[in-house]
Amino acid sequence: MSHLALCLQTWAADVREGFVEITRHSLALIGLVVVMVGLTFVSRPDLQASASGVLLGWLEIRQVEVSDTTEPDNAANRSTAKSLKNLTADQLLVTHWLSRKYRVSSEPLGAVVSEAWAIGERSQLPPSLILAIMAVESRFNPFASGSQGNVGLMQIERKAHVDELSRFGGQLSAFDPLTNVRVGVRHLQALIQQTTTLEEALRLYGLSSGQSTENLYVERVLAEQKLLEKLTERQNTAAVSAKSRLNPL
């Protein structure tokens, strides 16, 4: 028995020493790799720039994901008006133009225009298209109700979007302008994925919102979008022209 115990103690000691040696060599190897990578980055500025670009790109993607998923749970917690001072030049121009055309107060309309820009950037849809749908569907009346029970700025059907609206406080949140826009844009995105053309997606959107003449609806939306785009194009052209006069070659 004493011989067996001695063998076991010797074996345990050998295992422990082997583990210590492996750990020591592994840490030394990791340290060497870290030093070599550090020296490589110091001697290669182009690698530093590339690594920084990758890191910043990842952080920007994460920021977009977070901003898209951290929406307030209740629509009542959000403001439905926005200071016009916080709008960009294009957003301000569009806000004033729509305010005059549809006789809507500028401050709440400014919040909708700003939201259209933000959602358009995330969804890859032109903000002019989002605003054009609102113009045709509700004339920017957040309490508009259709003949089929569709409500809000983008005339969404509450029963068809129960799950999405529950995230914002329930079906009544469909009357919240920003909630309505977000749900409406997601519905439009789904239709675009199901069809081959934007015109077909718009036709289906008009059909779901209770429009009786789908083809005329598509023409009205695209015409409104074209007006908004021409509006911002003229301003940008004028800004470039003014800048060139101030800074001649």
Short description:
By secondary structure, the protein is an all-alpha fold. The chain has helices at residues 2-43, 45-69, 89-102, 106-123, 127-138, 162-166, 177-194, 198-208, 214-246.
SS content category: mainly alpha
Overall mean pLDDT: 80
What's the order of the H and E elements?
HHHHHHHHH
Task: Quote the beta fraction.
Answer: under 5%
Taking Cα atoms only, what radius of gyration do you get, to the nearest Å?
A: 30 Å
Total beta-strand segments? 0
Largest sheet data: none
Low-pLDDT runs: 52-72
Distance between the termini: 99 Å
Proportion of helical residues? over 70%
Helical segment tally? 9
Overall morphology: elongated
Describe the secondary-structure layout:
Blueprint: H1 2-43, H2 45-69, H3 89-102, H4 106-123, H5 127-138, H6 162-166, H7 177-194, H8 198-208, H9 214-246
Helix pairs in contact: 1-2, 3-4, 4-5, 4-7, 5-9, 7-8, 8-9
Structure description:
The chain starts with a helix and ends with a helix. It has helices at 2-43, 45-69, 89-102, 106-123, 127-138, 162-166, 177-194, 198-208, 214-246. The longest helix is centred in the first third of the chain and has 42 residues, at 2-43. Helix 3 packs across helix 4, helix 4 packs across helix 5 (127-138) and helix 8 crosses helix 9 (214-246). With 249 residues, the protein is mostly helical. The protein is built from 9 helices and no strands. Residues 52-72 have low confidence and may be disordered.
